[in-house]
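Sample 3 of the quickstart, ligand iron/sulfur cluster:
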Amino acid sequence: MNEDFATKAKMTWCPGCSNSAILVAFRQALNELIQEGFLKLENVVAATGIGCHGKILDYLDVNSFTSLHGRLIPTMTGIKLANPELCVVGFSGDGDSYAEGLSHLIQAARRNSDIKIFIHNNQVFALTTGQATPTSPKGFKGASTPFGNIEEPLNPLRVMLSAGATFVARTYAPEIAKTKEIMKAAIRHQGFSYVDIIQPCLTFFDTRNYYQERTYWLDEKEFPTGDCKAAWSQAEVDGEKIPLGIFYESG
Ligand code: SF4
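Result:
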């Protein structure tokens, strides 16, 4: 087995783009789950929406499907319905699933569809050169908001918790080892798994310093991951401290 699931495609992400870290984390997670006997490669299907995140399929030698913008979730749901034996993993972006595809994301959480969704959240429409998305902060200056974004950002973790998602986590792309572990937990979870991956866009919204100064990991032994109210409280954004980890998981 090709343990990196590598292809011969030329890398077209910007040099240093943190999408590469997500790719590495997923390759490692997939390899370990296969070695541990949890998955068979032939039963894995990876799908994407449209955006910089979508290029990840160019570099993964697995069964795959590139969907339409904002229509990743129905595509994943259809694949799973057609063959429930498959493990259906989706990669999306904040533009793809918090803007165009938000209703689909909410319905999948509400139904507890047995699909796994990883959102590359760089808080900007990067592929189209820097427009504001629902998670862009107030004041963000980009191609569509040259005088600063006047809107408050969406809190996607709270949206997912209130929609009834049974696995809710957040990670930070440069932390590859932790992201790998969260991806493995998300794939092992039976039901809908949602992971928001903070993914700085080096070209249109470089937030690396901001997140490196503010992020910290929830204590895996102390934090009550079965307590939705505790998860809701932790998901509050105060701009000073940004927790990472598994916020909520229910059986
Ligand atoms: Fe990565 Fe941003 Fe470049 Fe897209 S535009 S490849 S998200 S650095």
